[in-house]
Amino acid sequence: xxxxxxxxxALAPYAAHSEQSRGRCHAEPEAQGRTAFQRxxxxxxxxxxxxxxxxxTQVFVNHEGDLFRTRLTHSLxxxxxxxxxxxxxxxxxxxxxAISLAHDLGHTPFGHAGQDALHECMKAYGGFEHxxxxxxxxxxxxxxxGGFNGLNLSFETREGxxxxxxxxxxxxxxxxxxxxxxxxxxxxxxxxxxLADEIAYNNHDIDDGLRSGLLQLGQLExxxxxxxxxxxxxxxxxxxxxxxxxxxxxxxxxxxxxxDLATETERRITSAQPASIDEVREAQPLxxxxxxxxxxxxxLKSFLLHNxxxxxxxxxxxxxxxxxxxxxxxxxxxxxxxxxxxxQARVAENKARAIADYVAGMTxxxxxxxxxxxxxxxxx
Length: 380
Ligand code: MG
Prior knowledge:
- The protein has helices at residues 7-10, 36-46, 48-52, 71-89, 93-102, 111-121, 130-141, 155-161, 167-170, 178-182, 188-212, 217-220, 224-236, 242-272, 277-282, 291-309, 312-334, 341-347, 351-361, 364-375.
- The protein is mainly α.
- 63% of the residues lie in helices and 0% in strands.
- Helix 4 (71-89) packs across helix 11 (188-212).
- Bound molecules: magnesium ion.
- Magnesium ion binds at residues 74, 103-104, 197.
């Protein structure tokens, strides 16, 4: 049966076409009724690392409130934004969705604090990069199939997951690492997913920041991207309540960013005229905001860095989180027999990496529990 995706007709020549995929590491028969990238997306959704995203922090630790974003809802928002942009540009939205849903699978518990702590612990053993870990989850760590480790995803999905990578690690990755060594771009779909990620977190962090009370509306009046949309909302709805005003403003900001990104990217595509995915890879970056909006988005990013991510209440949590991750890593390194049985099996191959894989795979609450079990007398 031919896939009924209708992909070919709807896609631009520079898009990733599933029938021209560079393929999977382990040969498998085509799926019936699904394209390769739709199948990749389905495999991601069914994997255990994807379910664990529900209990991993974006900014706020999972137990801090039910309304904040988690890595799971963040990934869904990235997929939604990415698909919307891809469709406007004739790019392959199934591939954008697969990349978006998988892009954070390698994140440690406690967001960036956890990743920094684990990188510090792993310095003498090759370091820890969350992008590379996302790839490791889909290439190695998931145990779902009889014939191979990992999810055996298509090259293009794996290319999109590996957003950054050190040159040292790129050299070990063969075909997938080449673009970092040759300073080439990934597919347009990967570029779109990357910027959809930025649109998602900047906007939801404003929303969560205000909801948590760590940010005040007044502070955001100095952030042009927020202020101009907030003024629009107040003019249209003079009596609007604060929560609804924030929601209206954030939704308009997301829309502005999506429209700007699609418009600027289309302009670049028209000027570069890439005729295939390989010409996209050879070209200058195609997915981009216009210079004016890029500037506004940077002001917003720096506002969030100084006022939210470095807020003393967030810093207290991240400092605790770093301590938990570091304590866990050291305890297992000193005594690998503390590891659960199935993880002990991997210790023989590479002790530090096996421990990093175990710690990185933990959810926030599992890491806190495991810390209690190892360090609190009376727990087991
Ligand atoms: Mg992300």
